[in-house]
Amino acid sequence: MSEAGGAAVMVWLRLRPADLLGRMRERSAGRDRAKLDDEERYLARTDLGPPVVRHLAIDASADTADQCENILASLP
User: Fold this and answer.
1) What is the pTM of this model?
2) For a tag on the chain, would you pick the N or C end, based on fewer CB atoms within 10 A?
3) Residue 48, C-beta contacts closer than 8 angstroms, at least 6 positions apart
């Protein structure tokens, strides 16, 4: 990538715990059943904090088009 003049950018999609759980409920995926059966335990075990490395924080509660626009506007 660097040979072509590009650089990797980490994008972190920031989302409140309540919104995360709401999205999991809406999609009704079997893989989420155990998480939703004990939401407090799931959230306690899940690191929702920002990455420790340099990153671009994006509000994941915004609609997808706005998220993409924000990412593109933040690129060098």
Assistant:
1) 0.78
2) C
3) 15, 17, 20
